[in-house]
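Appendix B. Worked example

We walk through a single record from start to finish. Start with the input: the chain for Putative L-lactate dehydrogenase operon regulatory protein, Anaerotignum neopropionicum, length 228.
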Amino acid sequence: MNFEDLDRLRKENPFEQVGKLIYECLKQEILEVKLKPNTKLNESKIASELGVSRSPIKHAIDALTADGLLIKERNKISMVAPFSTDDCLKICDARVCVEGEAAFYAARYITKKQLDNLHKLQKRYMESLVSNDPIEAAKVDYQFHTEIVNSSRNKYLIKMYEDIGIYTLRNRCYLQYLIGSEKSRAELQNREKCHDTIIFAIEHGLSDTARKVISLDIQGMLEMYFLR
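Next comes the structure step. The output line below is what the pipeline stores for this chain.
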């Protein structure tokens, strides 16, 4: 684990509990695949590297286990949760169901402020492509789709998306990692075009088109994974 990341978070959040800061650091390392699936975590080693007691490490590991990012083996050793093709398929299926309906209603109810946010996120997404940063692009893509779900004004769809949020973000980042930088860049450029079409459909109240295109957007990433 990177001590510099923890030190930076401590300076930015001087009153936050150390355990929560370590949780954020470990979560980012898992999402960015710096800690790969099935990697075992040694609490004592992490505590020694960071110069802290084992108590905040245990707090962070327990929280990550509750999130589903870590699992505990029978010998109580914590390990980064595995990631299978079946996981990928089921997460994408869930996304199509929730985001498709959300896009349909977003085309009816989106506010000007939310629409402006979509345009800003699309700009950030394009900037991440220029800088060739697929993990950052995956994170911005997650924010883009979250904004669409929030624009649906359906509290149940929003809650459902919140419940699977950490899994959808990990899914995006891990797929980018598996695909590789060159193929990933090409695929992300396809996502850019889909984003433009989604924004157009939502902005012009084309509910059915918005639902269809956002589903194609999700499925396109999945196809790239299987064709890698």
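Two observations about the output. The chain has a mean pLDDT of 88. Residues 3 and 50 are 6 Å apart (CA to CA).
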